Give the backbone structure.
Amino acid sequence: MTRGVEDSLLVLEAVTGPDGHDVSCVPSKLDFAAHAEVNGLRVGYIPAWMNESPATNVDRAALDMVKKLGMVPVPVSLPDWPYNSLSIILFAEAAAAFEEITLNRQVDTLKMQVADAWPNLFRQARFLSAVDFVQADRLRRKVAQEMHSIMSKVDLLLVPSLRDEMLNITNATGHPSLTIRAGFVEVTEARSDWAPDPARPLAKFLPPRRVPHGITLIGQLFDEGTLGQAGLALERAFGVAAERPQGF
């Protein structure tokens, strides 16, 4: 997480490539030019997602900005599949990684213990069956094939940043993702990634509070450079990345 796209790419450059400790790493290279031409880049988007919650006017304005910058919007579609089922793989792998603190009960000392916080996911994942995992992995393969088909028609995707389906998909397929500030929305209640906790109700705002809102770009596998170039062009055009709350 950085303040801007170029900083993100500097960090990525520093960590790109195998480190000699992880056999799953592959040779890779970040090919990025800050002022590369974005005119003509094909930007896929899912029309229905842009016209329903959680998309906002900021998301729709971002699609308009794509056109203004000379990039070409391309409507694409995804099958109506249970993409949240891919989370089974994530939960199983996370539970395996944190097995020691789950079994020795150190997980009980973590602060967030609501139903879908990580401590309970570590515990619950131990009850997944091998069949559950294999079936989720079969879905993962189908989703990867579908994403390959979609990405063969475009250079990148533009999606609402709060759209859970794409988060689940890219967690499973490895397509690089870049979320950037694109504008502002007004909210009347704080947002949490966890289930509601009656003991800690979310703050409410009256009058509504103006907060930053981002859009997400999804790139081709191993092509973070193009993703960054498009992101930087959009970030400059939006002109909101430098805004700070009072006192910051």
